[in-house]
Every structure is written in structure tokens, then in C-alpha cells.
Known about the structure:
single chain; 11% strand; globular
Amino acid sequence: MNSTSESNRPTLHARAAVAEAVEAARESDRPLRILFVCLGNICRSPAAHGIAEQEAARRNMKIEIDSAGFYGGHAGDLPDPRMRRAAAARGYTLNHRARKIRSFDFDDFDIVIGMDDNNISDLQQLAGTVERARKIVRMTDFATAHPDYDYVPDPYYEGPEGFEIVLDLLEDSCSELLDLCEESGLK
Ligand code: 4NP
């Protein structure tokens, strides 16, 4: 719990990272590219991927979205059936195939969004340079309606309620992320 987090969100770093990402895409006259990252790439990040993709399409925004994970053991798999079911109940179809993150993802994407402390420290290590590391943002930095969460909890070993809170956090964060993209001038 962090009583100051509510007023701090989206954080200054999140705002700056989105503004820089949108600027990079506009300068190159190409869609903004967002990468969501978690551990397995079968629960949290593919759900963020599906939610953001669907919401961006609904808003008619030019964004390319992908997701990846640090653990390659599920590479090629569809998202966990529990996450697919929970997401489908909210109207999202998740059909991403899991893949392992690569260091050159930092060159291919404008912003790289991790779900928890481990993801963020692993991303910082993988980034290797300050320039690349500036693209890393924590998902809950966008979660304005959930000030009591400072990471998206791994639902893999949890019951059904674990998947619901993940989806609540991701819907909140994706909505704010896309609002910021629009405020930064993304069409
Ligand atoms: P995710 O959840 O990082 O949200 O995709 C996990 C999925 C699988 C494993 C860990 C976390 N695993 O250890 O297999």
C-alpha cells in the first residue's frame, strides 16, 4: 500500500516514456510499437496484449502490440486456458503464441512494459544501455484506479480470483496507457 501512489499515477516516468515513444513513432511515420512482458508469456502479458490491441482498435489508434516472457518453457503455447476463459468472459480473445524476449526487442519496440519487480529488474539487465532502459515502464505506473497495487501479481498458482484481479489491473492500466498515447499526439 502506498498512500501517495494514487496522485502520482500515471507516474512521471510513465508519462515521459510514453511521450518519447509516441515521438519516435511519429518521427519515423510508423505505428507506435508496444511490448508487454511477464515471466511465462501465457497469463499476464498476453492478456495485456489482447486488451490493449482490442481497445486500440476500438479507438482507431495506430499501434502494433506484442508480448513476450523471460521463461521460454511455454514458447509456442497459447495463453493459459484459465486466462483465456476469464478474458473471454470480458469480451477479449487471446490467441498470442508465447515467445521468449530477445535483447533486440528493445530496438524493435518504442516502449517495453513489465508486470512485476522481477520483470523490471530482468528487463533492466537485458537492456544493457541507459537509452534502452528508458523504454522500460512498470504496468501499475498506469493503474490509476488501483493505488494499492504496485505490481501485477502472477496468477499462475492462484485460483480464479487471481485472474480477475489481473484483468482488472490490466484494463485499468491499458486504458490509461492509451489515454496518454492520445494526449501525446498519437492518432
Ligand atoms: P505469466 O505467469 O508470467 O503471467 O505468464 C506464469 C506462467 C507460467 C509460469 C510462471 C508464471 N511458469 O513457471 O511456468
